[in-house]
Each structure stands twice: as C-alpha cells, then as structure tokens.
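Incident log entry.

Two folding requests arrived from the same account within the same minute. Monitoring flagged them as a possible duplicate submission, but the sequences differ. Recording both here for audit purposes.

Request one:
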Amino acid sequence: MLFVLSKTLGVALLPINFLVELGILALVLMTTRFARAGRRLAVTVLVLLALVAFSPLGKLLLYPLEQRFPQWDASRGAPDGIIVLGGSVDTDLSSAHQTPVVAHAADRMLAPAALARRYPNARIVFTGGNANLISTEAKEADYSAPILENLGIARERLIVERNSRNTYENAMFTKELVVPKPGERWLLVTSAFHMPRSVGIFRKAGFDVEAYPVDWRMGGREDLLTFTNMGIDGIMRTDIAVREWIGLVAYRLMGRTGELLPGPAKD
C-alpha cells in the first residue's frame, strides 16, 4: 500500500506534475461560470512555473541535502564492502533494446568501479530491482551487473540483490543478503541528494554504513542564489529536491528513519 501511494500521490505532488494538474484545472474552470477564477489560477501557474524553472528555488532545496554528508575520508582505511544503490539504469528502455541504458546518475556506476580497483578485498553489492508501479520482469540489477563487470569488477566479487523496489527494501534485502558482522565497515554509494534518506533507512534497519556521496547536482554555497538560464534544469532540480523532502518526511512518519534529516554519525 505504501509503495502504491509513493508512486501515485507522491508523483502527483512533484512540482512539475502538480503545476500541470493546476493548469488543467484552470482550463476547465475557464469553460464554466468560474472563468474568472480559472484565469487567475492560470496566471498563478505560469508565475510558479517560472519560479520553479529559473529561480534558485531548486538549489535552495537541494543544498541542505547534498551538503549533509562530506566526501568520504579514505584515511580511515579500507572498507569491508561497498553497497551501490540502483537508480541509474532505466529498466524499461534496457528491456526494450536488450542492452543496458544508463539514463540517470552515471556516477553511481563509475564510483564503485574505481573503489573496487582501490580496495581489491572489498565485497561489492549492487541492490536494485524494478521501481515501477506496474512492474515487469526487467530488473535493474540484471542490466547493471554487466556494466560493473565491463568496468573491471570481477563477477565473483559482485553480489547482486534484484528484488528491491525502493530504498527501504534496498536496506532490508541487502542486510539479509550480506549479514554484516559487528565491526565491519561498509560504504554506501548513492547520489548526494539521496544520501540523508538512504543512510537513515540503513541505520534504522540496523546496518551501519559510511556515506560515499556521488552525482552532485549543484556546486557550493556560492551557487545558492544564482538563477538558471535553462528552465528544464531548474525544473529537474526542484523535482528531485521535493521528491527527497517528501520521502524524508514520509519515512520519518512511518518510522523507517530515526530522524527527519539524518547526518554523519557522532563519534
């Protein structure tokens, strides 16, 4: 039920989808005796769309997510394992063309290859199934594993979890699969904006991980108040940020994280 809600209500509340829905409502109202309200709503939608597309709104929402965890400190020594969250490969396109299609967050695939070469004794885990509401037989892990192999990770080192549909299941299924031992150090590789929610979920599941953020969508503090000249970039940043904040609030309310905005562990 929760998965269905996240793929329906959660998607409907994303800024671009919500604005389109309001725009359609405005058009409908303009054909009725509420035409004046419809015109006002249409103007409001256009103003909001411009703010989402060109203003610093998306950056302001992304910044606290991306900056929550610093880059991983290699001086602490070699990790015992590396967990790679799915989200890069489009399962439907990969299935249609019978070849892996990396549609998003390619850094999630590149970083573990570099880490695997640097730490030859670390176990490598890829976790990701099919996140679509109407699932098919296509699994992201089935297309991601060959990419990681082609990047130099030996197949015998690679542990594949192919049934999870979201980050909560990533954590639960991966823990069951690898059974981490006390004192082991596991890296978690995912997009910087997704790291707070991911780490919070793994912690709540009893699986301590160290953040290895990748796939940043903005620079530092100096970018916070800069405007965007490509509207699609602003829309994408705002959608990503709002989706993460909705996820953080929802997972906290469901008790799947221990705090609203998880951060680095206190030594």
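Request two (distinct sequence, not a duplicate):
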Amino acid sequence: MWSFVAIGAVAALSVKGPGVLRHATSNHDPGPRVELTLWVGASVVWLLSCIALVLVAAAELLGPSLKGIVATCVSLYQAVESHGSGAMVAVGAALLLGLFAAGRLVWTGLLRGRAGRSWRRGHARELDEGAVPRVLHGHQVWLVPSPRPEAYCVPGNGGRIVITSGALEVLTPRQAHAVLEHERAHLDGGHHLLVGWVRLLDKAFPRVPLLRAAAERVPVLVEWAADDRAVRRVGVGPLAHALGRFAGSDGASDTVALSIGGACPVERVRRHLTPAPRCSRTPALGRAVSAGLVLVAPLAFTIAMTMTSAIVPPCYCPV
C-alpha cells in the first residue's frame, strides 16, 4: 500500500508541481534567483524521487537483507520466486522501466553533450579566424564583423562574450555596457547549466507537466537574473533601449549559447519599468520555503519508505 502512496506522491509532484510554484511566486515576488532555485530544485527532486521509487520496489521484497550487491541480487531472486509469477512480473517491469528511464536519460545527455561540444568547437574556430579580441567596458569580448546586431555568450574554457560590429553601431556606450554586463552575468552564474539541465530532463522524459513547465520557465528566469545585474551596474534605461535594439534578433543557437535577445523583450522591459508590487522579504521567502518543502515531500516520503522496507522486518500476523 505504501508503495502505491509513494507513486501517487511522485505523480502529484509531476502534475501539481508547476501550480504550486506559480502560486508561491504569483503575488509575492521572491526574485528570479529564488525562483530559479525552486524550479531547478523541483526537477532534481522529481528525478531523485523516481530513482527512489525503484529502490522502494526492491526494498519491499528484500527487507533487512540489503547487504551488498551479490546478497541483494540473491535475496531479490529468492523473494520474487517465493511470491510467485505475479511478483516476478511486477518487479521485473519496475526494474525494466527504471533501466529504460536511466538509459534514456544517459543517451539523451550524451547526444546533447556531443552536439553542444561540436557546436562550440566549430564556433571557436570561426571566432579565432574572423573575430577580433577586444576589451570593452572592462570585459574581454570577441568582436565579429557583421551588420546584424547580435550579442551572446558561449560557455566553456572560461566563457566567451561575442558581440557584432553591427551591435556596436546601433548601441550607445552605456547600452553596450549593459549588454556586456548581462552576458557576463550568464557566464558567472552558470546559467547555461541550469537551462541545459531542465531541457535535458524535458527531452528525456516528455509529457511530464513539471519538466515541461521548468523547461519553459527557467530560460526566462535566467534572462531576468542577468537583467537584474545589468540594471544594478548600468541602470534601467540603457538596458531597456538595448533590448529594443536587439528585438527580433535570434542570436546564436539557444541550446548552447545565451543571447541578449532571449525571452520576451517586452516583458523584460515592462518588468523593470512597471514592476509588480513587492511585499516585504519575509512573506516572500516564507512562501518560497513553504513551496520548497511541499516539493521535497515526495522525495522524503519515498526515501522513508525505502529505508522502512529495507530495515524494519516484515510482520506476519497469524490467521
């Protein structure tokens, strides 16, 4: 029975998790960094909970005999055999499903990682051949001769900030400074890792509402977080005008690089020019912490079920 309850908890997290996160941040804005922590943390909790479910299935049959890999395999075989063919089918299906999910995650990660590395190597060669390294407003950048106004950052080897000559022609010095601060914030914050993680899970496990919502929300939040740094360093005006200059520019591949034109520029500008009413920090953080505890509950429950099944001996009641 408890195994089915654990499955229900993970299913609830998958379906109701996005609603919990949106409700926690709708009226009390905790800031993009806190929201990023919640969304990325929810995706990690979902994956760990699914792994724990497989362990629950094994621990239910193994009980206190979880003493190593060999003993585990032997005990599992004996337990399944003693429970008949139905238990064999159930446990086999659970293990096969777990192996399939793990294999799909690893395979998807390898494919995306290979594609990303290939793109970065090819782009690095293009920059070495055609770009001119310069220092603008205290930032090392690679200036690409192109009439299109573009600016983006490429992770790896310390990261590179790329800006085109066309961008510098349409931007004022303060606007260019805001753009560079925005891209540096992406590199310093490791935003490509957060975006890559949620997109990897969404690609490996499609049709999961939580993962789909995270893959849509996290790229927006990293742009908001980078905008906040640019506003603190340069001001709202230069950033807002720069976003207007880059409106409609696709930039680099969004699977590898983070472009200044990412997310909706109108929403980003409106967020700073007409910010939503902010409540005090304590209620905002309180709601964020409460949402985090709700999201972590399925993982805590499945782990508790695993430990209980593995440690507590079974109770046989005489008829």
